[in-house]
Every structure is written in structure tokens, then in C-alpha cells.
Amino acid sequence: MSAETKRCALAWAHGCLSVQSLGGMLGPVLFLLPNGRQVSPLHVAPWGNDLEREALPEILQELRGEWPCVPFGGDADRALPAGWSATGESFDGAGVPHGHSANAHWGWGACDDHQITMECRYPEDHPIGLLRRRIMPDPNAAAIDVTLEIEARRPCRLPIGLHPTFRLSSRPGSVTIEPGAYDGVWSFPGDVEPGAALFSPDRQWPSLGEVETRSGATIDASQVPLNEETEDLLQLFGVDGSLALHYRDEGFRARLTWQKDHFPSLLLWFSNRGRKSYPWSGRHVALGVEPIASAFDLGPAVSTAANPLALSGVATAIAFEPGQTFTTHYRLSVEVAPISNPAGHAAATSLAAVRQV
Length: 357
Description:
It is built from 4 helices and 25 strands. The protein is mainly β. The protein has a single domain, classed as Beta-galactosidase, Chain A, domain 5 (Distorted Sandwich). A 9-stranded antiparallel beta sheet has the order 6-7-8-9-25-21-20-13-18, with no helix packed on it. Strands 5, 11, 12, 14, 15, 19, 22 and 23 form an 8-stranded antiparallel beta sheet that branches. Strands 1-2-3-4 form a 4-stranded antiparallel beta sheet, with no helix packed on it. The two termini are 33 Å apart.
């Protein structure tokens, strides 16, 4: 790795959290529920201690939790259907996956009992100059408030997004995705991972609960993990800025809220043992819940073009101007929820007890 990853931790009355310099990634986070139980909803990739990870792209080396993506996705050569083209704005560095900040070490600002602040400076030839982020636990709740600031060097339009990634248990359907109001669902216009696609490509449906697969079957994509081994994406558009994950075996909900005027879509990344190469190795099970102004993760050249999402009225990029700081706020929280699988609850309680020991 190019530099040693450093971490800063913070504890408060309702939990504790860790933030790393690489990617500015938040995670893991341990929350204390009002009923006294401890829960940790954010994902930490299982290869974090492998020596082989040093050969991976920086974003993957210690993948975990939540981080900002400016720009979101990355330009690449892809086989896209009619109507999708990479004819929008691009620049040197637009092919870096999820942007410079997701692959660089951030600098530390104030780190005390109330907040962790960080900043990431971009290369001098990049249209973005600086990102700042502030992570602040709510002193009165099991919740974390995050602020992201973006400063541009020159006028530009970019897709941007947030990348919270949540852990899932091994039992299919043990977690229910509970989005707020949204207008519809759009499937990825191609293969996210060759040989591991699940959803019928470049299609629209009114509900996450009835999505057609490539075999012609209809499944409820709100129940995760999915039964199928897959790597695929669905984009919810016209979202109201909220989503919850009901961990039904464990008796809690993780809730994410954001500013819908900044991020009018939500990308769901179904990483369900579909990728077989290292570091995924057919073992990676997680759900990305990613507020975006982007066309999937297709990068600046597609997201700033006249793509089908943009032509339908869905914003897939944000305009930035020098001297005008873009500021957005979002919140991650947990709450007690009904248990629908007592056996799962018993296992989760036992695991929590082991962790406390």
C-alpha cells in the first residue's frame, strides 16, 4: 500500500465508531440500542488482513462502511445498449473508481469527543479541489450525522454519491429493504459482473417487490440476501431521501436519511457471492445503499450525457462552480424493531455476548 492507513475512534453514550484515512471510510460502528443490545450494521470486507490485498486498487484494500464518491463511478469501456453513450464531460482521472477521494488517504482535522473532521485534496489538474467531511455522533441518540463539503477548482458537472455499505447475514431474506416513497426502479443496462447478472437489463418497474430476472421469473428484491449468487445493481429514482433496513433476525432497523434535492436516486448494490476472483472469492455478501446523482456507477462521461435516466427527468449530475461550496448533510441511525425469527435473535444475542467478552 502507498501509505499506512491510520484510524481515529470516538465513543459516546450510544455507541462507538472508527474512521480510517484511506478513502475517509467510516466503519465499523457499534450502536447501543435503548434496550441495551449492541448492533453493528456497517459492512467490513473480509480481506482486510490479507497480505495479497496490497496489490488491489486502493478503494478495495480496506473496504468498509461508508464514504463519499466524487465523482461517483468511473469512466470505462463498456458494452451499453442503444440510448446509452459516453459522450458527456470527461477529464484525466475520470476513470478512477468512485473518484480520487475514495482511493486516497485523507488528512485529519479536529478529532475530539464530539466529532471527527477530515479533508482530501485532489490533484491539481482535477476539476474538484477539496472535499471536507465532518462525522458527529448525536449525543442523545444512537445516530451519526455526517456533513460533506465539496469545493471545485473550475466549473464542471459531475455525478456524485454516498456509499454506505451494510453487512448482511448468511440467511436469505433475513433483512428487508424498506425504502421511503420513490417513483420506480431501473435495472443496470448491461452486466455488472460477467456471468453474475440477475435482473433483466435496462428495464423499469414500479416496485422493488416485483422485479423481473433474466430467466423471466419475478422476485422480491427487497428481501436480502438474495437466494441467487449475483453481482447486480438497481436504481430507485424519484426517492424521498430515506430508507431503512429491517434486520428481522436481530430485532433492529438501520435507517439512512439524506437530502433528496442533492441525491434524487438510490443505488442498491447487491453483492451476493457473484464475484469469484480475488478478493471477492465468492464469499462477499453485502448491500450497498447509495444515495446518488448519477446514472448507476457509469462515470462522468455517461452520467453527464443525454442518458435515458436524464432524459426521463432524473438528475444524473450536479453542477459545481469555483467559490461556491457544495454542502450536504445525511444521517445514519438505528432503532429497536420487531424480531421475526427467534432462532436468529438467539444467535445474534449469543454473538453479541461473545463480542462483549
